[in-house]
């Protein structure tokens, strides 16, 4: 069994990244490096209003005073922030009205990824705002959605068409001073998605965006802003795959969610950026600041993430539970293999009365991967009768990997209950034996057990994503047992 | 200058103190110890005192404690009533008692006792002179290069403390009670160093008390190194009963050789600011360490338990259970860190922290942290913070037990998971009583002592009106 599993690990670790290809599209680059001029260039390129340029410059000036944080359990090669191209946009030939006008190369790229715009449009009822590199290429279903008053468009478009909304909410959850990478993003963000659900509207479709890093040496800095007005509901999906590259690519995104009274936002992510090759060369550096605020009472924000890609993942989708009775949820599956490193988790800030939060985190480490859960549960003095339940389990496959848990628990009143539990172990040999005894081969048995292990999280995903996520998990982990 | 008076603790003061008194500090040192002392001083200077921006001190702010003025003595103070120190013993318990007053060994008879079975107990300063080879072999071996400022400062300044040596194969029958008493009429800053060596197949039962006799403020920086040889056993109790103006930084390094077995109990019943650094290193296979902690804090008391278990060898097991009840404005911090190294297969590590908050002004920070680099492990941790179970409370009240008594019973039951692990019956009885008293808020300061130690023992009972049941 030992040699079997070694063989399987070998096969697996030598497997190539399935989505590694480059689409040849003309791109327009900003000059390499970051100065105020770069920011003015980006802003001018996007014909942004004055307030946004000001915001960017303020963020940039603040960023200059900061240093890259070192507290995470990650080994990061020094990043030369002056050696990055901060803006790249596919050259627009002319304004697009329908799918036929989209660059066929782009369409082919999506098709290779299994994301067919046509199919999604026709069959699955999903509105797709596809982002290649930094500029939104095609937005579908906008018309259908606008019937409900829902605004779903690229961030640049929102800046031009709905400047007041953007001005009101941008930076209100993640201020430009928040952290090193958030400041960087605030200074140079290229594009992203904007979503506004008016009062009392239940968004009829799952909104989704696919991000994809395409041009070499291009940092991608998206910014997503979701505003759910009183009593509204939206389910938003984000997914990524990136082509194979030898140089590390930087990715620093911001997601902000504002949920008003009685609103509910469900945010799901499947992240599958290029993780680097089996020697740890290349791969995406993924530094993401995601935060939602439950502003009104009874609001709910739910984060679900499946993290299988990136050489480095630094990501803590968080909830500020400000409104009374508001609810925050975090479901996560994070897989690290080869030399991948992930430091991910959540922060639940309980400020309102009777607030509740649930954290389910499942880490899977294989190869030489290092997987850390880092979470904070903070119950402030005023958050009486609050409740938190956290569970963060780690599964280790192979003797070279690492799994770590850094839970921070802070309770400041007597009526709240906080529970945290975690276990770390390898795949149970009993379970493997049981499966094999019944004629299930090693590889399938592991797939089965891992999928069962992650099921609690996977079942939170919207149907469209659940299939992809399960496939990803199986691809990532088949057979890697020590 | 042998003494500095009523100054706050700063790097400058300590550097000056060291440089102008280097000779006095190192007067009993062997060549090796002297070298270790100088190295530690350099490290201390480099590290400086911690602030709350440092991860290890995030929730424990030493600013106020360090800024107070303290006397610092480079020689033992004359004590009119030495017997006072030994008053703090446990009734009906036959122990060998060694006393420490303000960090200095207090000799009842001789500075170093050599018992018939080869056990050596007494002053570390004396041991340095009498058994230089033995001290050289172990001193500072467990602390190693730990970049911890209070350990470095202690190594640089420590002059005296307790030395216990249990030779291989010797099973100590009597528990040893180590009483460290602080008694001074001015604020006092003290540093003492203990070295305890338990040989292969030997065993020892050690009760280590930290007490203060009056309400005077104090700052203690105490480092203890404990070595457990192969298959050795240590039953270790740490009782902390200091006044509300005292700051105690207690760092204990346990180093366990193959198949060594450690049972450690940390019972913190009183103290202004208590910081327990507990570091366990498995230096051989099949070691076992059980570390239990109980803290009952109120007023503005602060307790910080920092437990680091280093699974550096395969097939070792560790189990941590820390439970606390926090009342009024008390602040409890638990920071558990289990490190399972790459080759430590067959590791089994558990970590539990449970807290009960009785008021809205009490606070808890819990960080049960696991760092694992091997897949052949079983590790778990759990942390809960909440209040007394309302259903259990209802159950008791339904049966005629008054609310106050019911709460006491439940709290006592909560604490009893730790108290019940005490293996010495007399000590368990005593701690049970103390916990009961503490929960009833009766553990007030008498004129002499924090603990009613000298008062005759009266069994403590919960006031439950049996006739109503």
Tell me what the structure shows:
The complex is a heterodimer of chains A (482) and B (469). Chain A is an alpha/beta fold and 482 residues long. Helices cover 26% and strands 34% of the residues of chain A. Chain A has one domain (2-477). Chain A is built from 12 helices and 23 strands. In chain A, the strands form 3 sheets. In chain A, strands 4-3-7-9-11-13-16-19-21-23 form a 10-stranded mixed beta sheet, covered by helices on one side. A 6-stranded parallel beta barrel of chain A has the order 12-14-17-20-18-15. Chain A has a two-stranded antiparallel ribbon with strand order 1-2. In chain A, helix 2 packs antiparallel against helix 3 and helix 3 (50-64) packs antiparallel against helix 9 (180-188). Chain A starts with a helix and ends in a 5-residue tail after the last helix. In chain A, 55% of the residues are buried. The model of chain A is unreliable at 8-15, 92-96, 118-126, 133-138 and 211-218 (pLDDT under 50). By secondary structure, chain B is of the alpha/beta class. Chain B has 2 domains: 28-67 and 80-387, no CATH class; 388-469, no CATH class. Chain B is 22% helix and 38% strand. Chain B contains 9 helices and 22 strands. Chain B has helices at 11-25, 31-47, 63-67, 124-130, 132-138, 149-157, 390-398, 403-419, 425-439; strands at 3-7, 70-73, 96-101, 104-106, 112-114, 120-123, 162-166, 176-182, 188-198, 203-212, 218-228, 233-241, 246-256, 261-270, 273-282, 288-297, 302-311, 317-326, 331-340, 347-357, 363-372, 377-386. In chain B, a hairpin with a 5-residue loop joins strand 5 (112-114) and strand 6. Chain B is globular and about 70 Å long. Mean pLDDT of chain B is 85; it is low at 444-457. Classes of the chains: A alpha/beta (482), B alpha/beta (469). The A-B interface holds A 71, 73, 381, 384, 394, 396-426, 482 and B 55, 342, 345, 355, 357-387.
């Amino acid at each position: 069994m030992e040699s079997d599993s070694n063989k399987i690990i070998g096969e697996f670790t030598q497997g190539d990244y399935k989505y590694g290809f480059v689409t040849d599209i003309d791109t327009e680059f900003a000059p390499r490096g970051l100065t105020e001029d770069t920011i003015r260039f980006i802003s001018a390129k996007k014909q942004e209003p004055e307030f946004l340029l000001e915001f960017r410059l303020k963020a940039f000036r603040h960023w200059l005073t900061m240093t890259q944080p070192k507290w995470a359990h990650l080994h990061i090669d020094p990043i030369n922030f002056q050696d990055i191209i901060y803006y790249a946009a596919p050259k627009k030939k002319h304004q697009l009205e329908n799918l036929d006008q989209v660059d066929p190369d782009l369409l082919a790229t999506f098709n290779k990824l299994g994301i067919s715009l046509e199919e999604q449009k026709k069959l699955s009822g999903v509105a797709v705002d596809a982002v290649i590199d930094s500029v939104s290429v095609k937005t579908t279903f906008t018309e259908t959605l606008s019937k409900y008053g829902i605004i779903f468009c690229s961030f640049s478009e929102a800046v031009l068409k709905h400047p007041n909304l953007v001005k009101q909410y941008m930076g209100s959850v993640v201020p430009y001073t928040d952290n090193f990478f958030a400041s960087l993003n605030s200074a140079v963000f290229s594009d992203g998605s904007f979503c506004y659900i008016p009062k009392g509207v239940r968004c009829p479709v799952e909104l989704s965006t696919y991000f994809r890093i395409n041009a070499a040496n291009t940092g991608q800095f998206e910014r997503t802003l979701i505003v759910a007005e009183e009593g509204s509901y939206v389910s938003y999906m984000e997914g990524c795959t990136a082509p194979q590259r030898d140089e590390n690519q930087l990715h620093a995104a911001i997601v902000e969610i504002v949920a008003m009274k009685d609103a509910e936002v469900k945010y799901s992510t499947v992240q599958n950026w290029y993780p680097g090759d089996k020697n740890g060369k290349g791969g995406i550096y993924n530094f993401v600041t995601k935060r939602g605020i439950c502003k009104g009472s009874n609001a709910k924000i739910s984060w679900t993430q499946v993290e299988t890609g990136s050489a480095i993942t630094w990501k803590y989708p968080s909830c500020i539970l400000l409104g009374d009775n508001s609810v925050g949820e975090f479901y996560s599956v994070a897989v690290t293999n080869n030399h991948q490193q992930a430091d991910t988790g959540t922060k639940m800030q309980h400020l309102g009365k009777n607030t509740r939060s649930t954290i389910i985190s499942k880490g899977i480490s294989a190869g030489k991967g290092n997987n850390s859960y880092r979470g904070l549960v903070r119950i402030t003095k005023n958050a009486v009768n609050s409740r938190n339940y956290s569970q963060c389990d780690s599964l280790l496959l192979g003797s070279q990997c690492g799994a770590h848990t850094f839970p921070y628990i802070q309770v400041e009143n007597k009526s709240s209950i906080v529970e945290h539990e975690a276990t770390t172990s390898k795949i149970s040999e009993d379970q493997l034996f049981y499966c094999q005894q019944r004629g299930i081969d090693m590889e399938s048995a592991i797939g089965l057990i891992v999928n069962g292990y992650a099921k609690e999280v996977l079942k939170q995903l919207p149907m469209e994503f659940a299939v992809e996520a399960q496939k990803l998990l199986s691809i990532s982990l088949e057979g890697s047992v020590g | 200058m042998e003494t500095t008076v009523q100054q706050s603790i700063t790097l400058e003061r300590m550097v000056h103190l060291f440089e102008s008194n280097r000779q006095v500090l190192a007067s009993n040192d062997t060549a090796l110890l002297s070298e270790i002392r100088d190295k530690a001083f350099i490290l201390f200077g480099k590290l400086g005192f911690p602030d709350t921006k440092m991860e290890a001190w995030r929730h424990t702010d030493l600013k106020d404690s360090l800024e107070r003025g303290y006397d610092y003595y480079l020689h033992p103070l004359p004590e009119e009533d030495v017997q006072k120190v030994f008053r703090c013993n446990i009734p009906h318990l036959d122990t060998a008692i060694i006393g420490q007053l303000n960090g200095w060994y207090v000799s009842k008879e001789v500075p170093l006792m050599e018992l018939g079975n080869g056990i050596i107990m007494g002053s570390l300063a004396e041991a340095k002179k009498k058994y230089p080879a033995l001290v050289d072999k172990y001193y500072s071996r467990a602390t190693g290069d730990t970049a911890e400022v209070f350990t470095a400062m202690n190594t640089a300044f420590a002059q005296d403390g307790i030395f216990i040596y249990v030779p291989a194969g010797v099973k100590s029958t009597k528990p040893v009670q180590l009483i460290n008493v602080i008694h001074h009429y001015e604020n006092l800053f003290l540093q003492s160093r203990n070295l305890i060596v338990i040989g292969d197949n030997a065993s020892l039962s050690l009760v280590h008390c930290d007490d203060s006799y009056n309400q005077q403020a104090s700052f203690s920086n105490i480092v203890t190194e404990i070595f457990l040889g192969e298959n050795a056993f240590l039953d270790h109790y740490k009782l902390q009963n200091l006044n509300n103006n005292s700051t105690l930084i207690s760092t204990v390094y346990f180093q366990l050789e193959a198949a060594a077995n450690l049972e450690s109990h940390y019972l913190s019943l009183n103290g202004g600011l208590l910081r327990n650094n507990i570091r366990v290193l498995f230096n051989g296979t099949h070691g076992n360490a059980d570390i239990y902690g109980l803290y009952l804090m109120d007023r503005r008391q602060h307790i910080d338990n920092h437990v680091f278990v280093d699974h550096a060898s395969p097939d070792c097991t560790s189990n941590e259970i820390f439970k606390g009840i926090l009342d009024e404005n008390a602040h409890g911090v638990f920071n558990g860190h289990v490190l399972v190294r790459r080759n430590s297969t067959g590791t089994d590590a558990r970590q539990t922290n449970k807290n009960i908050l009785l008021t809205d002004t009490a606070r808890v920070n819990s960080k049960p942290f696991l760092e694992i680099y091997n897949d052949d492990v079983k590790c778990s941790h759990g942390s809960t913070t909440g209040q007394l179970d309302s259903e259990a409370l209802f159950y008791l009240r339904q049966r005629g037990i008054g609310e106050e008594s019911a709460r006491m019973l439940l709290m006592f039951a909560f604490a009893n998971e730790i108290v019940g692990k005490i293996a010495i019956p007399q000590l368990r009885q005593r701690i049970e009583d103390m916990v009961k008293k503490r929960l009833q808020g009766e553990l007030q300061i008498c004129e002499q002592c924090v603990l009613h130690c000298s008062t005759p023992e009266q069994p403590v009972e919960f006031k439950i009106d049996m006739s109503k049941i």
